[in-house]
Amino acid sequence: MAIAIRSISLALKRFSLVQPPNPIRKNKAFFCKMSNESTPLTHSITLPSQHSQPVHIVASPGVSHSDFWSAIESSLFKQWLRNLETETGVLADGTMTLRQVLIQGVDMFGKRIGFLKFKADIIDKETGNKIPGIVFARGPAVAVLILLESEGETYAILTEQARVPVGKIILELPAGMLDDDKGDFVGTAVREVEEETGIKLSLEDMIDLTAFLDSSTGRRVIPSPGGCDEELSIFLYRGRVDKEIITQLQGKQTGLIEHGELIKVHVVPYKKLWRTTADSKVLMAIALLEMATKEGLLPPFAT
Length: 303
Fold this sequence. Notes:
This protein has 2 domains: 42-137, no CATH class; 139-294, Nucleoside Triphosphate Pyrophosphohydrolase, CATH 3.90.79.10. Helix content is 20%, strand content 31%. It contains 6 helices and 16 strands. The protein has helices spanning 65-73, 75-84, 185-197, 243-249, 270-276, 280-294, and strands at 16-17, 42-45, 55-59, 96-109, 112-124, 130-131, 134-137, 141-150, 153-163, 168-172, 175-177, 199-200, 207-208, 232-240, 253-254, 263-269. Strands 8, 9, 10, 11, 13, 14, 15 and 16 form an 8-stranded mixed β-sheet that branches. Strands 2, 3, 4, 5, 6 and 7 form a 6-stranded mixed β-sheet that branches. The longest helix is centred in the C-terminal third of the chain and has 15 residues, at 280-294. The chain is elongated.
């Protein structure tokens, strides 16, 4: 049901419900390094930490010429290489070396790479053994914990979606991947909330819960470091609304149909939230919120 903005303007500043958006995202053109089709699908690079040991990049059978070069030039792959050589990186102390990367799969989202699958041969110099190196790269993402207070009860906003990788319908926080490498985390968070719930938030109302983490963590959470490079920024929004808004949100159908998003909004009392879903984003957000509250790190909740 459409909700007129004027009907809630008195209930909550800078908070509005809108019809599910139907934008066509404009992705910048991706420029990749090209060569003749007869060129073997191999490439070599040199990392600053191992000048004398070039890294060989090889394509698996079935990976096309264009996908191979798109993978090498992608922000996903370049960021992974940078991570290896950071202060806490795998190659930082010189005890390990990267010998080869096998590009196994590339999934394009329009003109940009959405998912990248590869296998890295990283060798422990002392033993000569490989360490586990299968990588599913999808890049940084955001999630938002929306808490709405109404008539003395605090509610959390979840989305219900079919998640094919686990074969289940999952209740989770509004979330999404960054569209590019510009690092606009808060802007992406606000956009994803509007697309998935119909709620329009303002940038200045967002609180980055992951910013309270120690700087050594990169101030993001890593849900599955054994197989995926995803780093997640978790934001908090707090507001007050009339009970009518809670009722209208419950069961609201949203999502970008053209992107295959079939989403239903769920409103859950915050006190029951930790028992409601196994979504790791929800549980991480609760932990961050409760600890930040305990230590008095959150800004005052405007009345």
